């Protein structure tokens, strides 16, 4: 089933769309209540974060600064060798 | 361990819990995800993480972490897709209801799923399940 995601507003009991759909006359469509959570368009991720911020985020989560130190140590070793 | 930067994808619940627990491999994967594309999770996985907190401080830490992630809602569309997945996977199925919701979230947002157990999701049509490490 193909989904169109088009915003419309009810005026005088009829759905008025922002733009024309470009569908042939006689095409049957279904109108549902708007729920932003159902929007199928892609959501951009929150990142990327700089390394220092990423390390702070992870240290705050785990409460373990030793993991950040180990990560940096491993990274230095990889880059060196 | 030497690995390529991970691409954008949905982090499954058990992997998210491993990240929270400070497993070294999961920790490194999380850092690379944060640096490369950001961490994306289902609202269900986020809820599991929050529910695991044993103290107020731990809950605050989990919530602060999630504020740096993209949390995809368990919308009506996700729920309907999960229902169809659960109803169609071959039996006997290893997929739980929670797995179906997470898989549906990944499919609807056109994301691969990072999971520690890709075989569990193998029967979900169209889903790319990847081991993070």
- Taking pLDDT < 50 over at least 5 consecutive residues as the criterion, the unreliable ranges of chain B are none
Averaging pLDDT over every residue of chain B, what do you get? 93
Number of distinct beta strands of chain B: 5
| Cα Rg of chain A | 25 Å
Shape of chain A: elongated
Write the layout of secondary structure elements.
The complex is a heterodimer of chains A (81) and B (133).
Chain A: E1 8-11, E2 14-17, H1 51-62, H2 65-80
Antiparallel strand pairs in A: 1-2
Chain B: E1 10-11, H1 13-21, H2 24-36, E2 40-42, H3 43-51, H4 56-66, E3 70-72, H5 76-88, H6 97-108, E4 113-114, E5 129-130
Parallel strand pairs in B: 1-2, 1-4, 2-3, 4-5
Helix pairs in contact in B: 1-2, 1-3, 3-4, 5-6
Task: Give me some keywords for this one.
heterodimer; A: 81 residues; alpha+beta; 2 domains; two-stranded antiparallel ribbon; 2 helices; 2 strands; elongated; B: 133 residues; alpha/beta; Rossmann fold; 5-stranded parallel beta sheet; 6 helices; 50% helix
How would you sum up this structure in a few lines?
The complex is a heterodimer of chains A (81) and B (133). By secondary structure, chain A is an alpha+beta fold. Chain A has helices at residues 51-62, 65-80; strands spanning 8-11, 14-17.
Give a structural overview:
The complex is a heterodimer of chains A (81) and B (133). Chain A folds into two domains: 8-38, no CATH class; 51-80, no CATH class. Helix content of chain A is 35%, strand content 10%. The longest helix of chain A is centred in the C-terminal third of the chain and has 16 residues, at 65-80. The radius of gyration of chain A is 25 Å and the shape is elongated. Chain A has helices spanning 51-62, 65-80, and strands spanning 8-11, 14-17. By secondary structure, chain A is an alpha+beta fold. The model of chain A has no long low-confidence stretch (mean pLDDT 83). A two-stranded antiparallel ribbon of chain A has the order 1-2. Chain B has six helices and five strands. Helix content of chain B is 50%, strand content 9%. Chain B has one domain: Rossmann fold. Chain B is of the alpha/beta class. Chain B has a five-stranded parallel β-sheet. Classes of the chains: A alpha+beta (81), B alpha/beta (133). The interface between A and B is medium-sized, with 29 and 36 residues.
